[in-house]
Amino acid sequence: MSADDLGPTLGEVETYLAERAVDVDGGDGDGRDGGGGAEPGLATSVAAIAEVFAELTDRLGNVVVLALPSGTALLRYLFGALHGGAVPVAVPPAMPAGRLVEVARRLGARLLVTPYGRAVPGTAVRRFGRTAVATLPGPWQYHEPGHVIILTSGTSGIFSGCLHRASSLFRNAARHAGAVGLRSDDTMLVTLPLNFSYALVAQALAGLVTGARLVVTGPPFSPRGYLDAVRRHGVTSSSLTPFLLRNLVPGAPPRGLRMLTVGGDALPSEEVTALVRARSDLEVYITYGLTEAGPRVSTLAAHLEPAHRHGSVGRPLPGVGVSLRNVRDGVGELLVTSDTVLVRRVGATDGRTAPGEVATEGRALDRHTAPGQIATEGRAPDPHTASAQIATGDLFRLDSDGYLYFAGRMGDSCVVDGVKVSLPSVRRLAMGLPGVVAATTRLCPGRRAGHASDDGQGRHAGEHGRGTYAGDDRRSRYAGDDEHTEHDGQRFVLELYMRDATDDAVRRVRAELHRFLLRAERPCRIRGIPAQEAAYK
Fold this sequence. Notes:
eight-stranded mixed beta sheet; about 25% helix; alpha/beta; 29 strands; 12 helices
């Protein structure tokens, strides 16, 4: 493993996080004042953390799962693991314990890092201030050091991730920073969770590349809190998903912001136009990317474009090629060619057709290639120079000037509260529970029924995009109807064919599902249907 594999040096990372990165509450979030019971030599620096991970993993490229809140402490542990010869993966800190254990098992993790006091499995637990490092029983998965795993629960299943070279993530961050004009004198507000590729690469790593100051915040979010953070910390750059944009910036973006980037989901053209017109001096960038691509793919400088292009996600970044396949009526699946695409998939995917199938440069992408499989001509490509092509599973139009227009998704997923949800994973979890014979999902209108998959007439695509749903006019009763989860944007109903379809039985199923599902992944309602004519499990 060379220094080039890791991006900035350990010293550069250390200096940047110490001098240019802060948490919005003014602390550093790592529990340096750990108090009684903490081991001597607390992991207060990236170098100290790197030594800990090097000792516990023997620099063998073991997977280290980081279940820590977004903040500078998480970044220190991530870079510490990377420079200690381990392969880090950040996961949502609120991930249910059952899900966390299963994710660690599927990824073959050797270490699990959590806030101290959270019950975690492990053969040995070491405390570092407010942080605990647990050694897991195995079997352990080994990767070449110098790599990072980013979870991709919405596209390929809740137990899967993408293995990336750290060097390619920094390369992608630099390209994104150039596209949006990020400068060393900027101050970025990181609102999105750092386990999201958008926040990790397009903000945290971009900050390291450019020297821009980093201010990290976290939930709960409110318009007042967002405005206060922008003003108090002199924020000039903010990155939001459409969901957060609508909830945190209901009016004109606050003064002081020089630029605002929006990504993670489609933003309708009329909302882009309104955002541009709300503040004539604000730079507005609409971006598209996916974790498998490394992650950023394209950018639209909306403030410089005519209104008729506000429905576009722009043109590809330098070094990124795009094309369409299986084009019908001008719409086709987007293929991305870049030297920053994933190395391979890790964990468990939802099937053979998940986005992210890979082919190296010089060989066409076979539509039947299994997800994450790299097609080569008998020799391994140079990982630092070779480009590869992935199928995104996203549908686009591509105009004659090279602008991309999002047209929908091929996969069986939806976006809830700004989080992409894998519906096959939800169904598979439900069908693994006692008494559940079969499970189906269908989309239904949310509180913003005119967005997402809405066709403009109140109808939403059903399961796998087939059929329509015009409201629950069949007067069928939902078991456990008094308990449901409200979401913004898209929602989905889980219909279970059960031996016992009573309210109590459905509530028990819901409780089991909540042991594995994040809040955004939970169905807004669960409907129990007697499985009288279906074969019992």
